[in-house]
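note to self — DONT lose this again. spent like an hour looking for the file last time. sequence + predicted structure for the chain T wanted, 847 res
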Amino acid sequence: MASKTGHPVFNSINRGVLHSTTITTMAPKRPLDSENAQNSSKAAKKAKTKAARVIDVQQTGQPSTAPSRPHPRVRFTADSLKGLPNSIDVEKFVEARSFEVGAMQKAMQTAREDASKRVWQTLPRHMRRRTASHDSTRVPVRLREKARAEMDPVKKRKKLSALPKRGKTDIGRTAKLLKRQQDKTWLETHIWHAKRMKMENLWGHRLAINPTEKAFRPSHRAALHGSIVQDVSYYGVLEVKAPEDLLKDVLSRCCDPQSPIFLNCYTSGARACDTHIYEVARYPYGLICPCTLVWMPNDAAPRNAETADSAAPRVVWLHVHPSVFLEVHRAIQTSASDVIADSSHRVSQIEITDLRGSLNAYEIVGPRASQVLTGALKATKDSGSGRKAWNSLAGLSSSASVPKGMVIGLQVFDPRLSFPPSNTQLPEADRQSSVPAFSVPPSAEMALSEIWQEKVREKLRKPKFTKKDLDERRSKNLVPGTRLQPQPSDARIPILIIQRSISPINGPSNSSGASDSQMHGYLLLFPAGWSMPFWSSITHTGTRVGGLREHKSQRFESGTSHFPEDYVGTQSYELHWDNRAIEESAKWERTPKAKRPPYDLMPAPSKIQGHEVLWKPDWAGILGLVAKQGNPILGNELDLVPTQRPDDMDRILDSIIQEGNSELQEDDDVAWEGIGGNSNSSGPDQQDRDAPWVLHGTHATALLSTLASSSSSAHPEVLRCINELRVKRGLEPLPEDVAENLTKSALVTVKIEMCGRGTPEDISVIYGASGDLGALGEVAWSKTMAEIIANDSRSEDIEHERISTPDSTRIIGYVTSGSFSLTKGKGAALGAVSLVGLLEIMRRDVK
């Protein structure tokens, strides 16, 4: 059937009724002409692909209008190549054709990306974000314009209220960061460390404890075979300026008499000296902390020709721990006041300046420390004599070959100009030799540096150019990646490099060379404000970064005491263990009884002071001293007596029972008082008479050998040795009536190595074995109160169950730092024992 119009008619049957439907064809909406065909999607994609493959051409002049002619066929011969150069400069050749190379790379990239990929598909997988594909700011800057073109326009909702939320103010980022430093101080590298390290508040600073990654063993290997750096800018620097004779008098009253701080190699400024600081005229009592002294060279400050050498002003820096900075400042100030009072007949002036916040310091430890420094920093040509030593550092395979304490003064360029740095490669001859010789001897001229001048440090406190300014200069280089050439306007930063050997202070010298357990490195001092430029370059060399845990581990592996944990008798030591006792006691209290050690059920000596002895060493108990809080030796039961019982103990016990401890009351300023002391005496002797003190230094080994070989009493010999050192520094000798208390309250630092199994821990008890424990050795330590492991190889053949806990009277000391030594491959520890108990063991061995 057909309709009138000639179009076909389709019939449909619905419920038996015949219907007819007529469909009329319509003309196409868009005529298929040639113009619309070009606008189709296929043609648009083809045009887009063609445009992406276009290579830009650099236009150097007007195009030529002359008709093109076919090039004639040229035949190359030997004569036609005579005009070509024999060699070309590759760098200049690339610079001349940098536009063509860039255009080719751009065309290749656009042809590859625009043909089949969108912006988000061109990013690496770790930068792709499905939920952020609507945000063009989440892509690199070079792709944001293209990302906006691919995105659909988003209709933004109009905010009803423009008022800020309550409590929120529009303050800058700097103000927000400063607000978080009200109760602590951040280092300049704090933000870098906070992203990668565990942070804690210590000594008024926010310091890095350890890396968040597993880095304990790698850090130890880096200290032995590579390099590891730590920011030690939290250490304080105290400057003392005075005439040389007065300056020596000030230091004599508060420095360790065993330290040769007045040798010419130290006073000239060629070397730095490690010593201990004591309270004024209280040696051997009143130990404050270890300290590093650095003298300013004589030629660093201009002097008048008429001024005598003894009256010329000299400057010395004291590099001390932040926890005792105020104590050291107070001791130096007291000593200076006494010196000025004694020299009232002449005009004298002593200046004491606090340089905290003016200097920053990095400690780099490891054999590759020299390569890290020379690779990250570039010395200027006007560095003086220090440049000779700087050139010699580049060829060293170990920092142990540099003389101990050597000071090198330099002037370096801004490290950001030569970023990224590269480590210096060792010559082939130096790689074969284990420790090459260092050919430059220490001298005062080599230690000269402008860092001693306050005006120079203040001028460099803030870098003149920001990183953005340097990046703009770097972007103008024709060859990408080339380093910036120093300009006259760029800063020159003065620095000091001090060789550091981690070894006991005033310990016996090793003439055979560096010990395997010792670690060596450098201390880098530079003005404040340049921490991040220096830090970025040093860490980019591949060296590891450590915190306080790694700093302590280096001392432990080298057998050196770490401050303040291992310095018994100092106020910082007491404060450290008080805080640690509170933390560990609280942790033990909140642990269920079924999952915690039963310290409350263990036998003596855990009940001497209740629970306090579990969390803190009881030095008063092993030395027979009495703390000012009461009578910890007697404890809760009167039948407990001290280890070293004095002759008049019976009289004191009777007086305690009858008079209610009336004879043990003392003033709050006295930290310790001996049981056998004279309560009627006054002055500093009464305060120091029974205070615990540590016998250390070069004279300690010789004194112990002399006392062990002699069968007479040790009291006169100890007093004679101490008085000789006091008289050497112009101090009054101690009276003879303090000889007994002086020996009784003395401690000796010892190293402990396990011959068998076991690992000592902190606060482990050290026993002096005797009787049935004689087969186990002379010194035994206890990890817990119920387990004894002896310091003898024969302990492996004896069952621990058959060993009974030694009597509390055999305790001679405690472990201050104990752990598994990675260097020795077994358990090791540092501790302190009683001098009387140690002499008893040594004399028994001699017999």
